């Protein structure tokens, strides 16, 4: 109690001295707090902060220094690693070639992984994190990713090769983007130099993935168009990105109801041909196979080649696995585009890399944003 009285007395005396000093100031002059006040009571603020009005978040946005406001985000560049890791593209290509020798299906897995990363918060490798510092469930464990999303372990292997030659230089986001670029080359498209400069996210949230940021296999066409439009892609670009199924595969549980019990009718999907229904039943003979244990089926007959066969089989055989793909044939906004890609074998291979370049630049972190992870599964 005695110490409290001494403190309060001292405080009262200092405040009185402060008032006397302020009363001596010239009229109209700024009334700055004397330095002795801050020396005695540093918890009240720094001297250089004195007489600066408090501002809310909106004020901060409106009063950004001009120099900071003029600064542009660092752009992605094909020469980003020309000095720090000039062999980055070759390292990725060699590592991917080793993976594909053992697992040709890796091509489709890795292309899908890139899409699932970029469409949530942007191409920031948040899909690769095993935990979030906040403790929240991460993207790869979300409902729309779950146990069927593959490829993270392959990125681990590729990143390890990069770390051996260029320690903590190439981000996981760039590792994933460079890998997707090499997937296209290995799948038969002309080689392209990838863009570098992405940085890695510090958080990953399953809630972001589940918040209608990734399409579900039974969505309507309006839901699909809404999502792709929100991400900055027009209908043609949406049809092109869905063409990634050219090297993809689908598990039976995603489409088997179309052959056995479409919309609980006890009958096959009436839009499927008899040939397609028989093919589905042959590929998935046990309708009661537990989810995530059923076999995958290739979307088309060339599962390692990015070509227009995916569209050709739609048009010529009415062959589609996913409900979302079937809508491409029934919606007048997309049917002419599907027909165009089916009839011109050179169009899809030319347009697909262009749209993938746009995808790989979606909401990227650059400059000092995020970090360069040493291990893609965890933050530094």
TrEMBL record:
Keywords (A to Z) from UniProt: Calcium, Disulfide bond, Heme, Hydrogen peroxide, Iron, Metal-binding, Oxidoreductase, Peroxidase, Secreted, Signal
Residues engaged in binding substrate: 215
Coiled-coil stretches: none
Subcellular location: Secreted
Biological processes per GO annotation: hydrogen peroxide catabolic process; response to oxidative stress; response to stress
EC number(s) per entry: 1.11.1.7
Family annotation (PROSITE patterns): PEROXIDASE_1, PEROXIDASE_4
Site residues, Transition state stabilizer: 112
Role summary: Removal of H(2)O(2), oxidation of toxic reductants, biosynthesis and degradation of lignin, suberization, auxin catabolism, response to environmental stresses such as wounding, pathogen attack and oxidative stress. These functions might be dependent on each isozyme/isoform in each plant tissue.
PANTHER family cross-referenced by the UniProt entry: PEROXIDASE, PTHR31517
Protein name: Peroxidase
Taxonomic classification: Eukaryota, Viridiplantae, Streptophyta, Embryophyta, Tracheophyta
């Amino acid at each position: 109690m005695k110490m409290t009285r001494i403190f309060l007395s001292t405080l009262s005396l200092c405040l009185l001295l402060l008032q006397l000093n302020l009363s001596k100031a010239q009229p109209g002059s700024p009334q700055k707090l004397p330095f002795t006040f801050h020396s005695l009571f540093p918890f009240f603020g720094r001297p250089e902060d004195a007489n600066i009005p408090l501002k809310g978040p909106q004020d901060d946005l409106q009063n950004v220094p001009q120099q900071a406001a003029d600064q542009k985000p660092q752009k992605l560049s094909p020469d980003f690693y020309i000095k720090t890791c000039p062999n980055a593209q070759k390292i990725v290509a060699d590592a991917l070639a080793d993976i594909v020798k053992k697992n040709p299906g890796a091509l489709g897995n890795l292309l899908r992984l890139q899409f699932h990363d970029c469409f949530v918060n942007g191409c920031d490798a948040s899909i690769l994190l095993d935990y979030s510092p906040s403790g929240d469930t991460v993207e790869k464990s979300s409902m729309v990713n779950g146990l069927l999303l593959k490829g993270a372990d392959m990125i681990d292997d590729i990143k390890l090769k990069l770390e051996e030659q260029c320690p903590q230089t190439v981000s996981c986001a760039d590792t994933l983007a460079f890998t997707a670029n090499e997937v296209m080359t290995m799948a038969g498209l002309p080689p392209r130099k990838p863009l570098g400069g992405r940085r890695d996210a510090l958080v990953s949230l399953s809630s972001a993935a589940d918040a209608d940021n990734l399409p579900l296999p039974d969505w309507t066409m309006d839901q699909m168009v809404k999502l792709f439009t929100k991400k900055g892609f027009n209908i043609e670009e949406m049809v092109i990105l869905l063409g990634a199924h050219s090297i993809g595969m689908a598990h039976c549980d995603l489409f088997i109801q179309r052959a056995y019990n479409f919309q609980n009718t006890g009958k096959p999907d009436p839009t499927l041909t008899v040939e397609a229904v028989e093919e589905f039943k042959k590929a998935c003979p046990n309708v009661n196979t537990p989810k995530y244990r059923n076999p995958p089926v290739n979307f088309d007959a060339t599962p390692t080649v990015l070509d227009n066969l995916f569209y050709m089989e739609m048009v010529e055989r009415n062959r589609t696995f996913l409900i979302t793909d079937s809508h491409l044939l029934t919606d007048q906004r997309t049917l002419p585009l599907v027909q165009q890609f089916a009839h011109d074998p050179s169009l899809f291979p030319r347009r697909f890399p262009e749209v993938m370049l746009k995808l790989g630049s979606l909401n990227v972190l650059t400059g000092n944003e995020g970090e360069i992870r040493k291990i893609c599964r965890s933050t530094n």
